[in-house]
Amino acid sequence: MLTLSVLSHLPTAILYVHDLSGECGMSPSDQFMIYKEISKRFDNHLWLDVISKCDLLKESPVVFITEDGEADHLELAKYRKIGPEGAIRVSVKTEEGVNELTKKVPELLMAQMGRIGSKSIQDNSEVA
Which of 32, 68, 72, 84 shows the greatest Cβ crowding within 10 Å of its Cβ? Predict the structure, then answer.
């Protein structure tokens, strides 16, 4: 919660990493719920979604024993299979998506710096 509080007061861009492989200790369903909450809270921030370990997702989606594998929630079912729309799929093992990610992160940071600069200019003109 402290991280969320800090993020809400800083002019940050967000790189959100999803691990749908089931190897991170958190179920994809739990990650989905947290992702939905955070994305609502920070919808005005620049955002980049990354799916890690995509080489492990070639099989059917991971379903933890505490999850309902036949859940009727279409958005959650889609998330378990492919993650959020537009996410960069990355695998360190196969190097899939690594080049794309290394291009997108600087672009995201430059865009965020532009937003900060624009806001700073706007704030200064309001003071004057």
Answer: 32
